[in-house]
Structure prediction request, 148 residues.
Amino acid sequence: MPDKIHLTVATIVYKDNQFLMVRETEHGRSVINQPAGHVESGEDIVDAAIRETLEETGWHIELSHFVGFYHYKSVANGVTYYRLVFVANPVSLDTQYPIDADIDEVLWMSADEIRNNQNELRSELVVQCIDDFLQGKVYPLDIIRNRL
Prediction:
């Protein structure tokens, strides 16, 4: 198994009882995920969450809270992913923004729709993060102390 770790960020964007989600293809399989991606070398994690959300959805966002630090070891590739999850408010949609080629579709889904599609989720972290958010397990952004 690969001895690698990946630092990723994900954003829970919630509006009108719907979550901003993306459908992407991973290893030839269509999966649903929050806007998420890798933190670039030297990049601030807060900036990475804002950037990844814009690149994957075209939405400009404003982060409001931190949900948590999660980890997941992929059965598919043996890589361990460390995931920092933020909550954000949608500010505006840039319909002209070029969405990442990896994204097949941008969706707004209810929590029930997400749970009813468990077999399509990129990982079990998708629902776990949403459940934590819905249970009010959120923290102020100033818990993040490593702003670059």
